[in-house]
Amino acid sequence: MEINKMKYIYIILVCIASLLILNDYFCYSRRIGNTRFYLVETMANSKDGKPLAGLFYKPTAVSSYNGENTPGFPKTILWNEHYIISKNFDGNNDEIVEYIIINMDSIKPEFGEMKKVNRFHDENTYYNYLRQINLSEADMSHTDNHIVWWQSLYW
Length: 155
Fold this sequence. Notes:
Blueprint: H1 2-21, H2 23-26, E1 29-31, E2 37-45, E3 51-57, E4 66-67, E5 73-79, E6 83-89, E7 96-103, E8 107-108, E9 113-114, E10 117-120, H3 123-132, E11 141-144
Antiparallel strand pairs: 1-2, 2-3, 3-4, 5-6, 5-11, 6-7, 7-10, 8-9
């Protein structure tokens, strides 16, 4: 009788340990290109009832996500080897409320501290800044706010 109890306790402990280890797989996320930035599903929903994702940075493979404090949710994300751009909306209205440009060369990888983050509320100011730093959206990779469930198994 005592051996059967120990088997059940062992099985329960193995299940709990497995859930803790696989926790990242239960959180829908998608890596942005070859960067350490991820789209991570939040608890917020759009007016259509679809889950919205936020833009987060993950300093190391074993650490948790660090969020950048920005209003809204990424509608469009653009990136190259030096910059990541997030065009944020409020989740309900398609209008962009903020443009965020992060210089990835200024990030301390071990802690995720970001030194050069530029925020713009005006589209013209945003495009003027892109011209100043010789950055073209056409030369960058891009994605939207969508995460499908099976992507979390591969990234």
